[in-house]
Amino acid sequence: MSENGKRSDNLLNRLLDRYFYLLQNYPLATKSITSAALAGLGDFISQKLAQGGQGTVVWRNVGAYAFFNLIVTGPLSHFYYQWLEKLVPSKIPFAPAVRVLVDRLIFAPPFLFLVFYLVALFQGHTSAVAMDRIRKFYWMALKMNWRVWTVFQYII
Fold it and tell me: What are the tens digits of pLDDT across the range 89-125?
């Protein structure tokens, strides 16, 4: 806000206004594209960090995560959280805690399985390789998912 109480017209505010307009008017597309952009950027950054800033980025992996989030995470999250709000309305006691429990114990396990499987396929691996990755990393990833995201989901 500027000194006279009006919202300033700086670039960040204009971008946020536009984003919220798109979110209000085109929620599914906006959430899907946002999810894809953040996932692609996240994979790019994680590759760079893992390589100490050196080395080549595996663009197929960046694309695989972005594509998965565009066609799966964005739409699925959009409809899932609408459904969860109806399943556990705000008026019931401890609604936020119940939503987090439903999400963490019922939604997260199969969703993480889907992430492992489809991202591997989008990276160009076979179903057998995807299943091998699931056998090797799923349980460890799910436990980490529960540890890290449970707190954030309750806060948000």
Answer: 999 999 999 999 999 999 999 999 999 999 999 999 9
- The whole-angstrom separation of Cα 17 and Cα 7 is 11
In single-letter form, the type of residue at position 128 comes to: A
pTM of the model: 0.86
Question: Residue 74 contacts by C-beta under 8 Å, 6 or more apart in sequence?
Answer: 28, 31, 32, 33, 34, 35, 36
